[in-house]
Automatic annotation (TrEMBL):
The name this protein goes by in its record: RNA polymerase sigma factor
One family name in Pfam for this protein: Sigma70_r2
Species lineage: Bacteria, Bacillati, Actinomycetota, Thermoleophilia, Solirubrobacterales
Domain RNA polymerase sigma factor 70 region 4 type per the UniProt entry, residue ranges: 119-158
Keywords, sorted A to Z: Sigma factor, Transcription, Transcription regulation
Domain DUF6596: 177-266
Family from the record: Belongs to the sigma-70 factor family. ECF subfamily.
Matching SUPFAM superfamilies: Sigma2 domain of RNA polymerase sigma factors (SSF88946), Sigma3 and sigma4 domains of RNA polymerase sigma factors (SSF88659), TPR-like (SSF48452)
Annotated source species: Solirubrobacter deserti
Residue ranges of domain RNA polymerase sigma-70 region in the record: 9-74
Length: 391
């Protein structure tokens, strides 16, 4: 891809697909037409230059390509093509320039419809709004490309056959549906964070920004965006699985941290807390020069009210260790049923080491190593195991 076309693809792919889905009512038709339009752009823009409105050019070209294809198929008595073409001809003029925010919002909610399984929601969102190829999505989620291709085909087929509506939910249904959309975006981010795949994290942040633009009055949308910014800002410092306390803060992206903290301050002023906002606030505290651990414990107490899970309790125990000492934290950790979670054993190992119980710490590190898949985390655990005295 030329740099101009690549930039336009990253910026406008989701927007163009969303407009074409609205016009034709068919995801496959829209997606293929947009792909064709970008292929034409590769040939034309190098000769004619980048048009004043790349988005309008892509949308117009894609619509023409789709209509030409549907006319050919309709002439062969393809009834589906005839129906899609009729729907497109009845639609008003396609929006070529200007805001198409409602179309993208409709497409996000279509991709994340609750009747689709979570893996399908994530894959569709990355494919249609993120513009990632099937191969890229398959690599990100460690599945064979044919498996991911089948998953995408089934998801699009279900949308078509079940007639899943291409619209924003009613206001009464919006909070429940929005939580599912945010969960998909956060899952994409976490997959990139654990991978580690920086491009997936960046894709999730881009989707988060789009949602914040589309739904500026939803505090949890902003909370998720702030959370992702604050965590991703430390990506360089955590290379190799470096723990937060050992990170070189000079490697942190200060501009990204400042943006995330500014969002958190605005959200605090609104006083409409939610789980993503509280997690963002915790990471905003970590972004200061010195972590205020009592404040972190208090924020985890609030987070447990929204998300009373053992994993949240485990992270709270880590903060408790900094306030009340490792013995108090270990008592909390040992009450949690997380034996199959690698961080449970890693946290226990850290607390046992601080208490001088080295043999137990070694056992806990070995248990964590057996349960850990990510190589950076495995390398960190091996280093900690090697550094632990045998006596």
């Amino acid at each position: 891809m030329s740099a101009d076309v690549e930039h336009a693809f990253r910026a406008e792919h989701g927007r163009a697909v969303a407009v074409l889905v609205r016009v034709f009512g068919d995801i496959d038709v829209a997606e293929e037409a947009v792909q064709e339009a970008f292929a034409v752009a590769l040939e034309r823009w190098s000769v004619d230059g980048v048009p004043p409105s790349p988005a309008g050019w892509i949308i117009t070209t894609a619509r023409r390509k789709a209509i030409d294809r549907l006319r050919r198929e309709a002439s062969r008595e393809d009834r589906h093509a005839q129906a899609v073409l009729l729907a497109a001809q009845q639609d008003g003029p396609v929006e070529e320039v200007g805001p198409v925010q409602d179309d993208r919002l409709r497409l996000i909610f279509t991709c994340c419809h609750p009747s689709l399984g979570m893996p399908a929601r994530v894959a569709l969102t990355l494919r249609l709004l993120g513009g990632l190829s099937t191969a890229e999505i398959a690599r990100a989620f460690l599945v064979p490309e044919p498996t991911m291709a089948q998953r995408l085909v089934r998801a699009k087929g279900k949308i078509r056959h079940a007639k899943i509506p291409y619209r924003v939910p009613r206001e009464a249904d919006l909070p429940e549906r929005l939580s599912g959309v945010l969960a998909v975006v956060y899952l994409i981010f976490n997959q990139g964070y654990v991978g580690p795949r920086a491009e997936l994290c960046e894709e999730a942040i881009r989707l988060g920004r789009a949602l914040a633009t589309l739904m500026p009055d939803e505090p949890e949308v902003w909370g998720l965006l702030a959370l992702m910014l604050l965590v991703h800002a430390r990506r360089e410092a955590r290379a190799g699985g470096v723990l937060l306390r050992d990170q070189d803060r000079r490697l942190w992206d200060r501009a990204m941290i400042d943006e995330g903290q500014a969002i958190v301050r605005r959200l605090l002023a609104r006083n409409q807390p939610g789980p993503y906002q509280v997690q963002a606030a915790i990471n905003a505290v970590h972004g200061e020069g010195v972590t205020d651990w009592p404040q972190v414990v208090a924020l985890y107490d609030q987070l447990l009210m929204f998300t009373p899970t053992p994993v949240v309790a485990l992270h709270r125990a880590v903060a408790v260790a900094e306030v009340s000492g490792p013995e108090a934290a270990l008592a909390l950790v040992d009450e949690l049923a997380l034996e199959r979670y690698h961080l449970f054993h890693a946290v226990r190992a850290e607390l046992l080491t601080r208490l001088g119980r080295r043999a137990e710490a070694r056992q806990a590190l070995q248990a964590a190593l057996e349960l850990t898949e990510g190589e950076p985390e495995r390398a960190l655990l091996r280093d900690r195991l090697a550094a632990l005295p045998t006596s």
